[in-house]
Design a protein that fits this description.
about 60% helix, single chain, mainly alpha, 6 helices, globular
């Protein structure tokens, strides 16, 4: 399978790691990245995109924490296999619940893109063992504070 191609806009106010994260998530959701497909190495992708490896590390760390990617020592980073088994008939009810939540959350002043991050981190924290929950929520708070400081 061919390696995915990503493009970053270095002039955009959106942080580079967030741009990459969005592209990877969209590719997973639309089937362009398949479960268990190997992702590019941090170093290789950083060279390809002409960015610091820390940009790729931050993106991959977020995507591992939120369940999109997984890594194992010696085998690199891969797209995580989905394990949900929601019936199609449950999607309308789930969509209504989510829309009600989004409406309430944004009414508190949170921008729409902040809702997705908050939910992703909360889900990751619930699915991890208790020893990792605090670390995930700390990561979320750090990234939220950094984004706010940068005015993005």
């Amino acid at each position: 399978m061919a390696q995915p191609q990503f493009q970053l806009d270095k002039d955009s106010p959106t942080p580079l790691w967030v741009q990459l994260r969005s592209q990877i998530v969209n590719m997973i959701r639309h089937g362009q990245l398949q479960p268990e497909q190997k992702m590019p190495t941090v170093r290789g992708l950083a060279q390809q995109l002409e960015v610091s490896p820390s940009v790729i590390n931050q993106c991959y760390r977020y995507l591992r924490a939120t369940g999109y990617l997984e890594s194992q020592q010696g085998s690199g980073v891969r797209v995580r296999r989905r394990t949900d088994n929601m019936k199609d008939s449950d999607f309308p009810k789930a969509a209504k619940l989510l829309n009600d939540f989004i409406d309430a959350y944004t009414a508190m002043g949170t921008p729409l893109d902040g809702v997705a991050d908050a939910v992703a981190y909360a889900v990751a924290a619930r699915t991890l063992d208790p020893d990792n929950r605090d670390a995930i929520m700390d990561l979320y708070r750090e990234e939220t504070e950094q984004t706010e400081k940068e005015g993005r």
